[in-house]
Amino acid sequence: MRAKIISTGSYLPKNIATNDFLSTLVDTNDEWITSRTGIKSRHLVSEEETTASMAYEAAKKALSDANLQPEDIELIIVATCTADTLVPSTACDVQGRLGAVNATAFDLNAACSGFVFALTTADAYFQSGMYKNALIIGVETLSRIVDWEDRSVCVLFADGAGAAVVMADETGLMSASLGSDGDKCHAIYVKSRENNNPFCPGEKPMDHLYMDGAAVFKFATKTVPKSIRETLEKVNLTPDDVDLFLLHQANMRINQSIAKTLKVPMDKIPCNMDHCGNTSGASIPLLLDEANKKGLLKSGDTVVMSGFGAGLTWGTVVLKWA
What is the C-alpha to C-alpha distance for residues 29 and 17, in angstroms, rounded to an integer? Predict the structure, then answer.
């Protein structure tokens, strides 16, 4: 039994920050941002919106689309690196808000690869026979860890949530591959709280997100095509056999490079970074829901999802759309 996606949902915050708006905060402009990233605008949380509240809204839509009640769900996995609390997990918060009283709930942090990691984790549970359905959510409030005076970072990242209900079935996920390279863990990072005890009092302010953009670009353009090819080869497929590639939405130039390496047309690689920015763990499920709602996914389609990000991590799945 493998994981089959049966429904999707998403949520984007109310506030929209255009490139022109950001030009009032830092020394930048619309042409500079768009030409280098493909991003035109992004959503940022308001005071009443949180990581858990966005995850909850996306989850409700996915459950409704699946015609399931919260108590039907057996497992909730939330992929996030920007939880509202260190403890408890965002997943437990979402479980409580939903009233999913029968679900086991936990968070998973693989940054921008998080949703793919969560999907394969649910798939492993299904193969073991432990659970038969799951709610997986990718959600981030990246605006809380961004330095809004750093133009190299603040123009990229944004907030949002995407969710999917997956069920154990004989069809669905066909193959998967995951990876990590901890030697490059400092290419993207945010420090947690400093040590704080009687022997080493912590007085430093909380850190902001740091990213070595050139290193990440080089890593992504080399690793993602290789991962996609290897995952397809496991089921005797090639990039030409794929109907749709749902890639992490980090940078348009990265996606164009991946398309060129795989020799596939860009019309097979939908993008929403122009109006969503980089939402890390929420990126792929947001794109998935948008593609689903637009009718880009048809029954029997071969779909590739591939993410990459801090860790450094990467993950690819090949699946048949329901």
Answer: 13
Which residue range is the domain that position 108 belongs to? 2-170
Do residues 145 and 242 both lie within one domain?
A: no
- Which residues are tagged catalytic? 112, 248, 278
User: Residue 196 — very low, low, confident or very high, per pLDDT cuts 50/70/90?
Assistant: confident
Amino acid in position 302: T
Task: State the DSSP code for 208.
Answer: -
For residue range 161-194, what is the model confidence (pLDDT) as tens digits? 999 999 999 999 999 999 999 999 999 999 988 8
> Using CA atoms, how far apart are residues 109 and 138, in angstroms rounded to an integer?
10
CA–chain centroid gap for 197, Å, is 35
3-state secondary structure of 158: coil
Q: How far is CA 264 from CA 49, 71, 129, in A?
A: 39, 42, 37
146-183 in b/e form (b: 16+ CB < 10 A) is: beeeebebbbbbbbbbbbbbbbbbeebbbbbbbbeeee
Rounded to the nearest integer, the mean pLDDT of the chain is 97
Tokens coding 258: 């991946």
Task: Please state the length of the chain.
Answer: 322
Domain with residue 124: its CATH number is: 3.40.47.10
Does the model's pTM come out above 0.90?
yes
Q: Which helix (H) or strand (E) holds 129?
A: none
Tokens, residue 272: 């929403």
**Segment 219-242 mean pLDDT:** 98
205 pLDDT more than 90: no
CA distance 50 to 83: 9
Q: Which of 141, 170, 199 is the last residue of a domain?
A: 170
pLDDT digit string, tens, across residues 270-293: 999 999 999 999 999 999 999 999
* Distance in angstroms (rounded) separating the CA atoms of residues 164 and 174: 17
Between 8 and 322, name the one with better pLDDT: 8
Distance CA(213)–CA(221), nearest Å, equals 12
